[in-house]
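request received
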Amino acid sequence: GQNIDQPTEMTATEGAIVQINCTYQTSGFNGLFWYQQHAGEAPTFLSYNVLDGLEEKGRFSSFLSRSKGYSYLLLKELQMKDSASYLCAVLDSNYQLIWGAGTKLIIKP
Amino acid sequence: SQTIHQWPATLVQPVGSPLSLECTVEGTSNPNLYWYRQAAGRGLQLLFYSVGIGQISSEVPQNLSASRPQDRQFILSSKKLLLSDSGFYLCAWTDRGFDTGELFFGEGSRLTVL
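response:
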């Protein structure tokens, strides 16, 4: 079966750095997405990785290793507004998105 | 620019009542359209997707149905709601083949079945 694993919840301090991991086992791979979802709102796109390596976009970076079935989202200079759930999703060989359950990130002052 | 809207935003319905959620996309043509459901603390569950007018694929057998009467309109329906239908429903679109690498979501509809 297809599976996406990510931690259920993480806590970090304002101004610090946090890394949210995601491991996947899917039938084929056509890219990995990270989305941010604030409570009660729809997810919003953060990043898309299809090749191995690090993609940097401002305070957020996303890393992919296809051989290891592994990705992480790195958030730097954490702000209170970064408190949200972070969803990892993989596009499989049929171009269907397989979603993880999300990681709830709690930022403390 | 492209926009997506879905409504209603919130609704409370009794068990056994009908349901209709509507979603429209503007600023693009021939989008792939999706209905997802998200239960509390859970990931997104794909319910239906459509690659064109009248073309609906169902991912999960249940008492829900979907229709695409127009290119940019996607409707989620039920004739008789169950308690288990409660959740956060999200409509989304993407261009064909995920060319831009992004799925665009509507604002979401929170359904509570009592």
